[in-house]
Specification:
The structure holds two protein chains of two kinds. Chain A is of the alpha+beta class. Chain A contains twelve helices and twelve strands. In chain A, the strands form two sheets. In chain A, strands 1, 2, 3, 4, 5, 6, 7, 8, 9 and 10 form a ten-stranded mixed beta sheet that branches. In chain A, helix 1 crosses helix 10 and helix 2 runs antiparallel to helix 11. Chain A is elongated and about 95 Å long. The relative contact order of chain A is 0.19. By secondary structure, chain B is α+β, with helices and mostly antiparallel strands. Chain B folds into two domains: 174 residues, no CATH class; 168 residues, no CATH class. Chain B contains 15 helices and twelve strands. In chain B, the strands form two sheets. In chain B, strands 1, 3, 4, 5, 6, 7, 8, 9, 11 and 12 form a ten-stranded mixed beta sheet that branches. In chain B, strands 2-10 form a two-stranded antiparallel sheet. The relative contact order of chain B is 0.18. The chains are: A alpha+beta, B alpha+beta. At the A-B interface, helix 2, strand 2, strand 3, helix 8 and strand 11 of A face helix 2 and helix 10 of B.
């Protein structure tokens, strides 16, 4: 028997304390069909776990990535989100005159109910933007067609919307309000919240929907050090009476749906894991039963109960970790798949991509290891407690 | 059937393995049943003959755009319309944003005629509510959750509307979709919010379900070229449209369920492979005794079917009775009104179990049943 001794003294008394890992690998290979099925069972559980978490992570990352550290956003007090907000346009003049503010964009948002390609309708945010809006969002770029022209019923659409909704491709015309609007450009907002929006000229949109107000003011500060100063000034300006948030705070407050998805992922995976634990247990009990005589022999050779326990736990752990690795591999194709979900604070749909990150895969492996340990403990304990004499006498 | 004792004996031959397999299958089918019921709750909201007579009118653009309140009278005069009420979502915060529940501003008399399945607990309570403008009727679940009593004053902090509402609870309602909803007067909202004079939706009751298509066309036709063109939908379409906002739940549920079923196949196949391998010698003896290959195959598949069916029924009935005891309406703020695992779903779980049993056992059982006696005896114990 080959041994993986910890010391260089070879297979002396020192080495006999540990059963070589190779022994476990071999026994897994001998029962390869059973091993394979158990590994696959664990793998599927891990794949579901990682995939649902990837969905939650993708959704949350939209909100984590959107905020620009130099931007502030002003909305009506207590409205929580832009879609609920509206206020007098004169306030913009006061804000513009505040020291430290380098640019202000007054914008209006309208929810538009529009069918997805599947036919089911969803609400899309239609944003009326002003001259400074684009420069304050450096991550939003026009990638196809051209920008809308002022004074025309023209719009630019984010790429995920163009891919997932009807009649939103370049050159299409869609009815919003009482007019037909032409899609003249496609924009890419690099997976931020603006990737779920349609943009048009503020004046056109406010006229179409009779919203002669602003929903929000987006403010660019000169630099990072002036931002807190500007923020305090705006908060304390009695004339304004609006909620002031950094753009980052504003979007981070909307991550609730993402957390709910992650919670769902944990629940489903936990239930599946119970089933997989039983399956691992079954396999490991079979492994123990199959090797009763071997185990007894090992005991006779001087291996301790503890050593047998550790060896069987290790085998179960290897089994589960193999499953974990396969599961992570199976979940990889999910990475980048584009989908949409309702944002329950804005009542509009957010487009996002599944994100399988190394951290999530590590979570998956830890999850697999837990299944291995829980599923392996009882069989390993049974193996360690086998009565030697009777076991040696048993046939098979 | 004469083999039943043999099948039962075999099933309990390795009790621990059988129990683990049954539990493993039951956990998976518990989840499948739960997911299917969730999908049902989202895609097939409970519909009554009465709900088939109701339609909802909203702005063509989306619910976030208001329709002028003056449209209400024009809708009432559309042929086939029996009652109209304002139906305005308030979306206020009660103490903490985490306390989420539905709040609707309505026209008391017509509204509760249209939704006659939502019943006040006592007629006096309803009368008191109708008489007083800042009064509210609370669903019984909300009352329980927040400990409200008649006469309590509550404040709803506006989010969509920039005003706070001071309401006095004048009574409670139960039944229909009202158990987790707070109702108050639209007139009060309109008074608090000067220049509102609009609502995001109206609910309409038609004289009969047959007239619904004409009523819908007539309402939308009335406002086609107005400042606020409308979109009228049946209550069912309206609810489904609202649920569709969650995203593609169906794909999610179907894919998770498929993976789950595949996992059970693996578990069952593994168990049966183990137990058949152990039994090669016994199979030889059975065949020596005169059992045909087909008998052996039947006995093995029946054993697997028994185990899978036990797991499937345990899982789906477990879901039925465990989840039936949970008050989903309260926990989901009325989004999910009932979470009943239907008998259909239990049947489906049973069918899945049988299919799994057959699919996972056929190959090893077939091979075992084809064994030549001499080979089988020799292989015994391998």
């Amino acid at each position: 028997m080959e041994c993986l001794a910890t010391s260089d003294r070879g297979c002396g008394t020192e080495a006999r304390r540990v059963i070589p890992v190779r022994y476990n690998f071999r026994s897994l290979i001998i029962r390869r069909v059973g091993t394979l099925m158990t590994v696959l069972g664990v793998a599927l559980t891990v794949a579901v776990f990682v995939s649902i978490l990837a969905m939650g992570t993708g959704l949350q990352s939209v909100y984590l990535d959107t905020g620009d550290p130099l931007n502030l956003i002003l909305i009506r007090q207590g409205s929580q989100v832009e879609t609920n907000s509206f206020f007098n346009r004169n306030l913009k003049l006061i804000v513009e005159a505040t020291e430290g503010v380098s640019a202000v964009a007054g914008e209006a948002v309208v929810l538009v109910n529009h069918p997805r390609k599947t036919g089911q309708p969803a609400n899309i945010v239609l944003r009326g933007i002003s001259d400074r809006s684009m420069e304050m969002r450096p991550r939003v770029k026009l990638v196809e067609g051209r920008m809308f022209r002022r004074g025309l019923r023209e719009i630019v659409v984010s790429r995920p919307i163009a891919e997932r909704f009807r009649d939103t491709q370049l050159g299409s015309r869609i009815k919003m309000g009482r007019s037909m609007w032409t899609v003249v450009g496609i924009m890419d907002a690099s997976h931020t919240a603006y990737d779920s929006e349609i943009w048009g000229d503020y004046n056109e949109i406010s006229a179409e929907f009779e919203r002669y107000v602003y929903s929000s003011l987006l403010i660019r500060c000169a630099d990072a050090s002036t931002l807190p100063v500007v923020r305090d000034k705006l908060k304390n300006d009695r004339r304004i009476q609006l909620d002031v948030f950094t753009q980052q705070e504003y979007f981070e407050a909307q991550m609730g749906t993402g957390s709910a998805v992650k919670f769902l992922g944990f629940m489903i995976a936990a239930i599946m894991a119970i089933g997989s634990c039983f399956a691992v247990m079954n396999t490991m009990y079979a492994a123990t039963a199959y090797r009763t005589r071997e185990i007894a022999t090992l005991r006779v050779l001087g291996f301790k109960k503890r050593t047998i326990l550790a060896s069987f736990m290790l085998e179960s752990l290897v089994l589960a970790l193999l499953g974990g690795a396969v599961g992570c591999f199976l979940s990889l194709p999910m990475n980048g798949i584009s989908t949409g979900m309702g944002n329950m604070s804005t009542f509009s749909e957010v487009s996002f991509n599944f994100r399988v990150t190394p951290g999530l895969m590590l979570n998956g492996m830890v999850f697999a290891a837990i299944m291995g340990v829980l599923g392996g403990y009882l069989p390993a304990r049974l193996a360690a407690r086998i009565p030697i004499v009777r076991a040696l006498r048993t046939e098979v | 059937m004469k083999f039943l004792p043999l099948i039962l004996r075999n099933t309990f031959r390795n009790r621990r393995r059988t129990i683990l397999t049954v539990l493993s299958i039951s956990v998976s089918l518990f989840l499948v049943s739960t997911l299917r019921t969730l999908l049902d709750a989202l895609e097939r909201p409970p519909m009554t003959p009465e709900s088939a007579m109701r339609v909802l009118v909203r702005h063509q653009t989306s619910l976030a755009n208001l329709i002028p309140i003056a449209y209400k009278d024009r809708i009432r005069h559309v042929a086939g319309v029996e009652e109209v009420s304002t139906y305005q979502w308030f979306g206020g915060v009660y103490k903490d944003p985490a306390n989420f529940f539905a709040q609707f501003a309505v026209d008391p008399l017509p509204f509760f005629k249209i939704y006659s399945d939502i019943r006040p607990l006592a007629p006096e309570q309803f009368e008191a509510f109708v008489k007083e403008r800042p009064a509210a009727l609370a669903g019984v679940n909300l009352a329980k959750l927040y400990g409200w009593h008649i006469g309590d004053r509550i404040t709803l902090q506006g989010t969509i509307f920039p005003r706070n509402l001071e309401l006095t609870i004048r009574g409670f309602v139960s039944g229909g979709a009202g158990d987790s909803v707070l109702f108050f007067h639209y007139d009060y909202l309109n008074e608090v919010m000067p220049n509102l004079n609009g609502a995001s939706s109206f609910v309409v009751k038609a004289r009969s379900a047959d007239e619904i298509p004409e009523v819908m066309d007539a309402i939308d036709g009335t406002f086609t070229n107005s400042t606020a063109p409308t979109k009228t939908e049946t209550e069912k379409a309206f609810v489904l449209g609202f649920m569709a906002m969650w995203g593609n739940v169906r794909t999610l549920v179907v894919s998770i369920s498929t993976v789950l079923i595949f996992t059970i196949v693996l578990v069952a196949a593994n168990t049966m492979a183990m137990s058949i391998r152990e039994r090669t010698g016994e199979i030889a003896i059975l065949k020596t005794l005169g059992f045909t290959s087909r008998d052996v195959l039947g006995v093995l598949i029946a054993e697997s079917a028994l185990i899978a069916l036990a797991g499937g029924l345990l899982g789906s009935l477990g879901a039925r009775y465990l989840l039936g005891a949970v008050d989903f309406q309260t926990y989901t703020a009325g989004f999910i009104q009932a979470f009943d695992v239907k008998w259909e779903t239990v049947m489906l779980a049973a069918l899945i179990s049988l299919a799994v049993a057959f699919g996972s056992t056929f190959v090893p059982a077939w091979n075992a049943s084809r064994l030549q006696i001499a080979d089988a005896v020799r292989r015994r114990g391998e």
